[in-house]
Design a protein that fits this description.
Rossmann fold, six-stranded mixed beta sheet, 33% helix, globular, disordered N terminus
Length: 242
């Protein structure tokens, strides 16, 4: 990645405290086949511009926590605030609107629409948000793809790209609405070492140069070690910040 990235548009203004996301006493249970507590009194904060990784062994609760932080899982006890707004007890429609405006997602699998061009895939969240014209959204999508070195692939079907390229398109899609937070669930889990490094460099540039807050669940020790802060989980609890 280059040191400077041409990008138009910035994320929404940070809260005065600098805290973008915080939780208070998050507890989560599974009930099938038996009652099991998967998260135990999880309380922590995420500051603007942090590249934060959630780590821990399988079953530690990190992915469950991420889905609560993303507002996609609402079946928990405790409180979640994003941009100083309480998410807990919001309606499904309210949360969907908040997600589309304030949160971008990058998953282990890219979830691109194979028959759509890369450009159209990137445009989808902005079309759904409906704040810009289609022409403006298309121009913005081109900018995001150019930023990630994929402008020349914009009109290709997503199915024609390599795995690393597809994941970069997924990152561009996550960025299209200039979200407060990008959340990644094993965003490099399907990539080789070269593409893993490319994706990490993208995240680091977004965080350090453009004040983008990023929360990523990862099993990749190198990815975690190079992040700004590691939150380590075990048996549903945060056991270490470093």
């Amino acid at each position: 990645m280059k040191d400077e990235i041409p990008i138009n548009g910035t994320a929404p203004k940070a809260t005065e405290s600098g805290i973008i996301l915080r939780t208070t006493g998050i507890n989560k249970y599974f009930y099938d086949p038996v009652e099991f507590q998967v998260l135990r009194n999880v309380t922590f904060e995420v500051r603007k511009s942090e590249l934060l990784t959630l780590v821990g062994k399988s079953g530690s609760g990190k992915s469950t926590l991420l889905y609560i932080l993303s507002t996609m899982d609402t079946d928990y006890k405790g409180e979640l605030y994003i941009d100083e707004q309480l998410m807990t007890n919001q309606t499904i429609d309210q949360l969907a609107a908040i997600r589309n405006e304030k949160i971008g997602f990058v998953f282990q699998f890219h979830y691109l629409l194979a028959e759509f061009t890369c450009l159209k895939n990137v445009m989808i969240p902005a079309l759904r948000l409906g704040r810009l014209s289609e022409k403006e959204i298309e121009a913005k999508a081109y900018q995001k793809l150019e930023m990630l070195g994929l402008a020349d692939q914009a009109l290709k079907p997503a199915s024609k790209l390599s795995g690393g390229q597809q994941q970069r398109v997924a990152i561009a899609r996550a960025m299209i609405n200039d979200p407060l937070i990008i959340m990644g669930d094993e965003p490099t889990g399907n990539l080789d070492s070269k593409n893993t490094e490319i994706v990490f460099d993208i995240f680091r540039d977004l965080s350090h140069n453009y004040n983008q807050t990023i929360i990523a669940v990862t099993h990749d020790e190198d990815f975690a070690r190079k992040s700004d802060r590691i939150v380590e989980m075990k048996d549903g609890e945060i056991i270490n910040h470093r």
